[in-house]
Amino acid sequence: MITTLDILLRLSLAAVLGGIVGIERERKDWAAGLRTHMMVCVGAALAMIVSAFGFKDILGASNVILDPSRIAAQVISGIGFIGAGTILFLRQEVIRGLTTAAGLWTVAAIGLAAGGGMYYAAWIATFIVVIILWLLKPLEKRIFRKYRIQVIRLTIDPDAGPAITTALEELIAADKLEFIGLTIEKNIRGSFIVLRFSNKGTGDLMVGLIGKLQSLAGIQEVYWDKGN
Predict the structure, then answer these.
(1) 100 versus 109: which is more confidently predicted?
(2) Which tens digits make up the pLDDT trace of 8-53?
(3) Domain topology for 148-225
(4) Continuous H helices in the chain
(5) HSE-up of 71 (CA within 13 Å, CB side)?
(6) Which of 29-43, 124-138, 195-209 has the lowest mean pLDDT?
């Protein structure tokens, strides 16, 4: 039977490891931050403890078979519910929260490892996760920046006619940007034009284009996603 001290050790370790990952998410002001990651990790650890040791009193009964993995398996599948809540579909081109959702799923697995007494595995997994979330981010930006797409989303007057697209084409051609495509959207929130550009060799050209778009008749709002 597991001791009280061992229970305290496993749950405390889960809280610490979950908090380490949560701090990285907290500094970026995500909804799933420090407390969320700690709660998920501690809850997963407790579920693992219950799964492994919570049924000792009935093991000797007839026709009773214990499968310690059943509750742990439900944690892995059930964490998807929380993870899905962190994924935000801001617009057709922009999705946020996939990394945080993956982090919550991994933190749940770390909690299961801590709850199962696999302390070394829990620590190593936490170390690797922090490297992926924190240290690899600048490297990822530096390597893949030129392959990303920059998006400009324009909120336009509902009464704006075809002339506005002609004006946009002239502006883009004049600035010699690597233009990819244009999409016109209409929904209950209004009318929008989405412009897509390559991230290669844009420099200050995008800044100049933003200034020209803001002064263009028929455009109410300009949103620029730099593709970072």
Answers:
(1) 109
(2) 999 999 999 988 888 877 766 566 678 878 888 998 998 888 888 7
(3) Alpha-Beta Plaits (3.30.70)
(4) 4-26, 34-53, 69-85, 98-115, 119-130, 136-144, 163-175, 205-214
(5) 19
(6) 195-209
